[in-house]
Task: structure prediction
Amino acid sequence: MSYLRHIMALVQKDIIAELRTKEMLNSMLIFALLTMVMFNFAFGSSSAMKAVSSGLLWIAFLFASLLGLNRIFVHEKDENCLDGLMLCPIDRSAIYFSKAISSFIFLSLVEIIALPIFTIFFIQESFLSHLWLLIIILVLSNIGLSVVGTLLSAISINTKARDLMLPILFLPVIVPILVAAVKSTELVLSVSSIDTQQFWIDITVWLRTLAIYDIIFALVGFLTFEYVIEE
Amino acid sequence: MKDRVTRRLLGMASFIGIFISLYTVFRAPLDKNLGIVQKIFYIHFPVAIVPYFAFFVVFVCSILYLKTRDRKWDKIAYASAEIGLVIDTALLVTGTIFNKPTWGVWWVWEPRITTSLIMWLLYAGYLMLHFSVGDIERRPRLTAVFGIVAFISVPISFMSIRWWRTAHPLIFTPAKIALGEALDMQMWIPTLIFLASMTLFYVYLLGQRVNMINLQEEIQDLKDEIGG
Result:
């Protein structure tokens, strides 16, 4: 039980620190919005946009998450807080899970604001009746992005190139998440009724992919994180 | 001394093996549908299998390094990633050449080709990570962790033509091999010889590369000693 308490305390610390400056949240949000505006210029008319809207949505979220993940260890490293954390009598994996949970929370907050705006910009059709399905997709994808991103962010913070390294390591690893998230979002956005059997067969394949991916990488992170941060 | 003899022998064996393979490739009968174009299959297949093996070696050596902290495993993992990446490049190139006459286009975004490209990008990232960590104490740990993470692409790429319906043919299934439908008997011979000599060539390069890394470190130590 104390393991969970440790994680929660560290998450609380991250949230308080973030709320004091709001650096990361603001830049992620503005960046996501800017991406959408850029899409508008890059792809033009709305008829072409509609066909690829779920892809655009995920590209915007992905790059916003990249921006946030780049930052999660910067403060810890620059102010030598990581040494302090490592001196704490807690399991190293608790640090990993707390960082993953905080980046999950920040990413989800950004998405909660950006998704309605995206809908108004590009989709313009109500999908409120099956919004809950979209939320499941978002949650599963965010878990995947956070568990992989936290581990790789801890690796890249130790390199000379620092934040240049993260996209190169991160993007090819999360391709399966992008594929599954885009496909399932497309299904949810394009379908008129979710009661058909075919819809459920299609969507479970992608949701299962996301879930398996999350479990694998949460385990990999749990097992290897301590090797990344030790000095 | 003994190592050196082994490496020489491996090198000779793999070169002779590749010459024999090339000979058998052109002795094998022409494909009924594809004709002479099909010959590239004999190199396309081994350069597809060997990177899987090389990246599997990276994965295993990364785990072994984290467990034992023996620098030997780190050197093997790095050398294997480097060679795997080169052979994977050969895979993408031969694949592209194979595509044009058979499918009519150089590049198709279908699962097998795409996953091979992602695998290439991941191990290119692995090498970049290696160069980007200056601290030699820290480097093996970080690359080992990424070597474990990057391995996810290998089973995905391997299973891609089994999981999804794609344009890429699936030739080697147990059922097809048992029924003798996978390849003509005379096509099996060059395929297997080429695969064997390509694997030998990989082992030879791996030995050479690890030896080279050892020598580089020795030189560096000597330089540090004399204060150069």
